[in-house]
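Now for a sample.
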Amino acid sequence: MIKQNYYRQGIMVEVFSLGWMILEFVVGCWSGWRAHSLLLVAFGLNSLFEIISSGALLWRLNVTSRKSPNEVARVERRAGRIIGWCLLALAVYIGVTSGYNLVNHQGAESSLVGMLMALASLICMPLLMMVKLRVARKINSSALREDAMCNLTCAYTAAAVLVGNVLTAWQGWWWSDSVFSLLLIIFIVKEGLEGVRD
């Protein structure tokens, strides 16, 4: 019965996460498109991949109450791989787009709406990650742990958005958006490979 309570907590936190990610996706992509900011678009796309990740986790948590342990383990592995591939796809997008922008000297404008969303995410995502990690330990879910790491990636992306936007507005450094985006790839690829290999 206690474990069922943790599954319910996991479902509730994933539903909240899903709603937050939809908001981040819309605001990030819209403000990034308006400001020609790769960082903000990457922030929005990261949220899209986290929407997929949350969907995979909701599937995994719902399966637990109806399926055998072997079926749960199979779904757990599949959910972890989905999350890993989403992160790797994001890394490819960031790498290609950053390289293109740097070669063509394409900079970004600042976006107040995007910066406010990034600031809210920078505060919210570590808290959400800690809740997911606590529940993951209780139900022994590596997929939920991987999903929590997606939230950490989102927090790093939000921090990069803030720093990149501040440098662009303050110093006029057109390249900061692309360079900070490229720095994110190291962490994103590491987390993605862990998900794919599990």
